[in-house]
Amino acid sequence: MSQTAQDTASGERRYAAVAIGLHWLIAALIVANILIAWTFEELKGLALFNQLQLHKSVGITVLILSLGRLGWRLTHRPPPMPAHMARWEKLAAHAAHWGFYVIMIGLPITGWIMVSASTTNIPTVLFKTIPWPHIGFVHALPTGERKGIDDAMSETHELLGKLTYVLIVLHVAAALKHQVWNKDGLIWRMAPFKFLRRTPPASEL
Length: 205
What we know:
By secondary structure, the protein is mostly helical. It has helices at residues 3-12, 17-37, 45-75, 87-117, 136-139, 143-182, and strands at residues 124-126, 130-132.
């Protein structure tokens, strides 16, 4: 195969720049929001209020970016997985992929419902600048119903948070397996930096 043909085939096996950029930006924001949430128990008063506002701000940003990422995914076919991957590995990769969409969209939505249902009626101002509305039909419910929704969404939000930890561990472990054990350079498909990029072996082309 000529070098030009290899370059073309190689490019077809990488995610598009938009997908790569959104992947790493959303990943960074999710990790940041996890770290922010870990500080809640140590804070009180205004410090806790500000940290909660920051947590909500990052969460809504993740929601918006994730909806954009999902729209891109549904309209742009991702690169094919390497032929050498076992069927169970491909199924697991697909499950993890869609599992991330569940948490990327589900976590901020359940958080938004919690805020909208809360009887404390605390407003949300994204990054201390942009007012973010409550979900109208939830906020308009009677106090008792809002309390029930708040409790249910709080539990769901916590469960999705735990699922996030599991998915992150599995995702990182799988990436390391392919990079260190299989040495197939699969991480190259989503790598944003040149030192992580490689030309796939001829067997993958």
